[in-house]
Specification:
globular; HotDog_dom_sf; Acyl-CoA hydrolase; binds coenzyme A; Thioestr_dom; long-chain fatty acyl-CoA hydrolase activity; Thiol Ester Dehydrase, Chain A; alpha+beta
């Protein structure tokens, strides 16, 4: 397991809670496909925004999305439902950060809430010239966050060895 602190950043390490984001959206007709369900692309856009905000908060820098893992669509989301996206950092490297994003759909008439999507987005912090720049360390505080860190480190190892990126 890597050290949570990043000695190359000038900013002290922060816990995941310091940058966590919760974002809420109402699904409107313009967000839907021909079946009346939320477009997958719109959900991915919202996840990217929520995850990006968490990464910007952590890094205090602009960030770029570099890779997305394990994005799943477990249940359709319908027009009129309320989507809540929760984003939290799981791991940081030197310039990159992994953020887990969970999306929940709420039927506001019944009050039913279900987990509809999960994904891991990796962002890279950028300096003023648009080059990767060091980010603060991450200090997991709970057992779940420590487990997430270890799982994220393993995901990164697999991701880098199986990258789809062409030379
Ligand atoms: C983000 C960008 C500047 C990074 O440039 P780069 O030359 O790949 O940078 P590096 O090789 O130094 O890698 C930067 C970090 O990304 C990580 N990385 C690179 N490829 C990766 C991959 N496939 N999976 C996970 N991490 C990856 C590196 O390990 C490094 O992390 P670390 O510093 O924590 O160890 C460049 O890839 C880019 O501009 N991509 C386009 C981004 C974009 O347009 N996104 C959509 C809109 S936001």
């Amino acid at each position: 397991m890597s050290e949570p602190a990043n000695p190359q950043s000038q900013t002290p390490a922060k816990p995941p809670a310091a940058s966590a984001v919760e974002m809420t959206e109402l699904v409107l007709p313009n967000d839907a496909n021909l079946l009346g369900n939320l477009l997958g692309g719109r959900m991915m856009h919202w996840m990217d925004i929520a995850g990006g905000m968490a990464a910007i908060r952590h890094a205090n820098r602009n960030v770029a999305t570099i890779v997305v893992d394990c994005l799943d669509f477990r249940h359709p989301v319908h027009v009129g439902e309320i989507v809540t996206l929760k984003a939290k950092l799981t791991w940081v490297g030197r310039t990159s950060m992994e953020v887990v994003i969970h999306a929940y759909a709420e039927n506001p008439m019944s009050g039913t809430v279900i987990l509809t999507n999960t994904a891991y987005f990796t962002f890279v912090a950028l300096d003023d010239a648009g080059k990767p720049t060091p980010v603060p360390g991450l200090t997991p505080e709970t057992d779940a966050e420590r487990q997430e860190w270890q799982a994220a480190a393993e995901r990164r190892r697999k991701r880098l060895s199986n990258s789809c990126r062409t030379p």
